[in-house]
Amino acid sequence: MKRKRAAKSPPNVRPPLGMDEQAIDALYGLEPVFEPDTVSGDSGAPTQFTSLSCPYCGESFITSIDLANGSCTYVEDCQVCCQAMELVIELDAAGAALQSLTVRRLD
């Protein structure tokens, strides 16, 4: 009776010394790490986390707001009851800080 040979394990692949995080991500096909309150995109505007209450179920949850989009309106689902709600975001004159956030029902 013949025995099967065990498959060789792949060698440890290590990135060359001196590679930065972006080069390593590109080498392995990885997405960049998301770190709250850091610069996002090319505009230099940070992502801000804010607490809001769902207009349907009344539950509070935390959501992230990308300040790079400027003052805008968009639809987001409640993280608790999954109902769609409209978020109206207004930034200050410099576009660097959240001035107001209005949450509305869509019905």
Structure description:
This protein is mainly beta. The protein is elongated, with a radius of gyration of 23 Å. Helix content is 7%, strand content 34%. Strand 4 and strand 5 form a beta hairpin. It contains one helix and five strands, in the order αβββββ. The mean pLDDT is 80. The strands form two sheets. It has a three-stranded antiparallel beta sheet, with no helix packed on it. The protein has a two-stranded antiparallel ribbon with strand order 1-2.
Question: What's the arrangement of secondary structure elements?
Answer:
Blueprint: H1 21-28, E1 47-53, E2 60-66, E3 72-77, E4 84-91, E5 98-105
Antiparallel strand pairs: 1-2, 3-4, 4-5
The oligomeric state of the chains shown is single chain
Distance between the termini: 73 Å
Question: What is the tally of beta strands?
Answer: 5
Backbone structural class: mainly beta
Query: Shape from CA axes?
Result: elongated
Instruction: Please tally the helical runs, counting DSSP H or I stretches of 4 or more residues.
Output: 1
Mean pLDDT: 80
* Order of SSEs: HEEEEE
Largest sheet: 3 strands, antiparallel
Share in helix? under 10%
* Range of strand content: 25-35%
- Using only CA atoms, what is the Rg? 23 Å
Walk across the major sheet and give the strand order: 3-4-5
- Which consecutive residue ranges, at least 5 long each, have pLDDT under 50? none
